[in-house]
């Protein structure tokens, strides 16, 4: 079966096959629009036309790893390393709380040393003591014991991208060693889910060597793993990384953008009640990228509230928006974009993924799952 209309109709009643997803990824023009419209309908039916804000703090760019694509990899000695200080992090939490955003995302490079683990734990506790904010951590692979400590401290969500779910492709973008083991990455995701976190993952889209079959596999991986949240965005090459040598293999930025939109739309259609973030990397290619992503299924936006003095140093990829995100003007623009995209902002709500509560309760998927969200 490869008629797009039939595939989209089938998605309402059964799981799609890899081939069917590949067909959806290959759509253009009218078929592509049909895919986007279906995703918009599913979003509205299953999670509602609401976008949740999370304040993103890029807490530290110190990283022990050497992912071949990432600008803040350990061996990039051009990077000035930092860790946001305690007062600044509390100010950021205060900023998010004052604006009724409901949640904070704390992201950092990956370290497993005791100082780091203790520091994260203390920070989570301090924020939770003072503010009624949901806390999402994105601090890489850790032992299950560390995940438990951070969970007990008050973090409830964790983002750990699988980056590429196909093992062979994974090892084209990571060295095969103890620090960058595919098996350990998978184990970390299982440990997060087992600990009780709302668990998020994601991939980069438009990588060298990546095919539509790989991307279809990524979506099926997310479905099989039963993730609660997803953040995925286009791969953006960085000159100070080894993967830059393969830039001649890259699809154009427009293709990467379109593919990202299709990945989001398909994920919304096949998983329905998960949270999907509209990521900053998309905005690098198209200034209106985030708003466009909301129209095809995304329901989370993470304004960057890292103190401005650190922005230049969290250079994962080149071209991150140079706007000072803290300004009220910026937030107003964002709200306007969300309104244009047809959504309301979920102020005062944590915006936990509905999927999490359904997964834990074992209830079947229905169009209205709002009754499963805790009061
Ligand atoms: N392009 C796009 N995304 C990147 N990331 C790291 N480097 C790049 C890049 N060059 C993403 C990875 C990582 C997240 C923090 O940033 O997916 O998980
Ligand atoms: Fe470190 Fe994450 Fe960058 Fe890999 S992607 S080098 S773990 S910050």
Topology diagram in text:
Elements: H1 4-10, H2 18-25, H3 29-46, E1 50-53, E2 55-60, H4 86-98, E3 103-108, H5 114-130, E4 134-138, H6 144-153, E5 157-159, H7 167-173, H8 182-195, E6 198-201, E7 204-205, H9 212-225, E8 229-231, E9 233-234, H10 253-271, E10 275-278, H11 280-285, H12 289-295, E11 300-301, H13 328-340, E12 344-345, H14 354-361
Parallel strand pairs: 1-11, 1-12, 2-3, 3-4, 4-5, 5-6, 6-8, 7-9, 8-10, 10-11
Iron/sulfur cluster binds next to loops.
**Annotation, overall tally of beta strands:** 12
Report the principal-axis shape: globular
Structural class: alpha/beta
Count of DSSP-assigned helices: 14
Bound ligand species: 5'-deoxyadenosine, iron/sulfur cluster
Low-confidence stretches: 371-375
Give the strand line-up of the largest sheet. Answer: 2-3-4-5-6-8-10-11-1-12
The average pLDDT score comes to: 93
Q: For the CA atoms, what is the radius of gyration?
A: 19 Å
- N-to-C span: 44 Å
Largest sheet: number of strands, sense, barrel closure: 10 strands, parallel
- SSE run: HHHEEHEHEHEHHEEHEEHEHHEHEH
In which range does the helix fraction lie? 40-55%
Strand content: 5-15%
